Amino acid sequence: MYDFLIVGAGLSGAVCADLLSKKGKKCLVIDRRDVIGGNCRCEETENIIVHKYGAHIFKTDNEEVWRYVNSFSEFNPFVNQVVADYNGELYSLPFNMNTFYQLWGCKTPEEAVECIERTRVRNDKPGNLKEHVLNVVGKDVYEKLIKGYTEKHWGKRCEDLPVDTMRRIPIRFTFDNNYYNSRHQGIPCNGYNEMIEKMLRGSEVRLGVDYIADKGLGRLAERIIYTGAIDELYGYALGRLEYRGLRFETEVLDVENYQGVAVMNFTSKDVPYTRRIEHKHFDRSRKSDKTVISREYPIGCGEKDEPIYPICDKRNMTIFDVYKKKAEQDGIILVGRLANYRYIDMSEAIENAMEVVRNI
């Protein structure tokens, strides 16, 4: 009946569906949730678009991807200027001259370099994340802005995390609080739901349908594109891949402006959540006399939790490689973050889907 069965109505599945339908292919898109959008999904509360599963800020240097998403939605420009709270002390992120002034009173790049050098713990062959960070940015930055946040996020001590967890540490010797370096940055004017709905218009969509529970659905199509967790696809037969998840606490507050910024990181281990999002700052053209905030609590990812951050250590990647070969043998096309067991942003997810469709 169909050329392709696409499992998952999130961003990756929607891009595949759109591109294939434009090539004249008949696609059936299914999702176990009763809504589309996956973790990009938004909700509207008090005239504020709320990013239900954490901040989703679109950024890319890929002109093809930027033209593509703009064909579905206008984008409001948005520069992510993150503030870090360490026990009530506020610092600018990423690390830049504003941060160094807040830390040490540095007014010139030369002074900042001297302060970093003075606090560095040199190590030519760091064996873990702590040693790597101390070698690159020194003790003050590590203790106040990296240690607590990272250990909460991953549920492990920095001494037990590999260097690759944070190999590239962005340092700018300019007064620039833009969190990203990407040429294009923004958020869809009406949220991601509308954009993904338009991507799916050329395909049949069935929601509340669980492929894992009924793999006989695969007989409806010549080929299967799968965007879910690859270990779940095979019933965890070769072992369960490890993830970190997030728990969100969202509330409406009877104030117009609560924290003055969209994203605030909490870098002390004494605060149980890693970030607090104030959603109205993503689009200040929308007016409301209230505000909506969400706190993000990192959690271990159990069987009923939504997997978000893959833990790409040697053990997990060895297991993933076996699952991937099994999927290739079965003719299942893997697309997106969960299926490929790597954390990718939205632009990378679209690039991955485009490449898959080109190969098809």
Query: What about the largest sheet?
Result: 7 strands, mixed
Approximate helicity band = 25-40%
Overall shape: it is globular
Total individual domains: 3
Instruction: Please report the total strand number as a whole number.
Output: 17
Examine the coordinates and then state which fold CATH places here, giving the name of the CATH topology of the largest domain: Rossmann fold
User: What are the segments in which pLDDT stays under 50 over at least 5 consecutive residues?
Assistant: none
Which CATH class of the largest domain? Alpha Beta
What pattern of helices and strands is seen along the backbone? EHEEEEHEEEHHHHEHEEHEEEEEHEH
CATH architecture designation of the largest domain: 3-Layer(aba) Sandwich
Mean pLDDT over the full residue set = 96
Strand order of the largest sheet: 8-7-13-14-15-12-16
Q: What proportion strand?
A: 15-25%
Radius of gyration of CA atoms, rounded to a whole number: 22 Å
Please give a quick description of this structure.
This protein is of the alpha/beta class and 360 residues long. Helices cover 29% and strands 23% of the residues. It has helices at 11-22, 63-70, 97-104, 109-119, 129-136, 139-154, 192-199, 230-233, 314-329, 346-359; strands spanning 2-7, 27-31, 42-45, 48-51, 58-60, 75-77, 82-86, 89-93, 184-188, 204-207, 221-226, 243-253, 263-266, 275-278, 291-300, 309-310, 332-334.
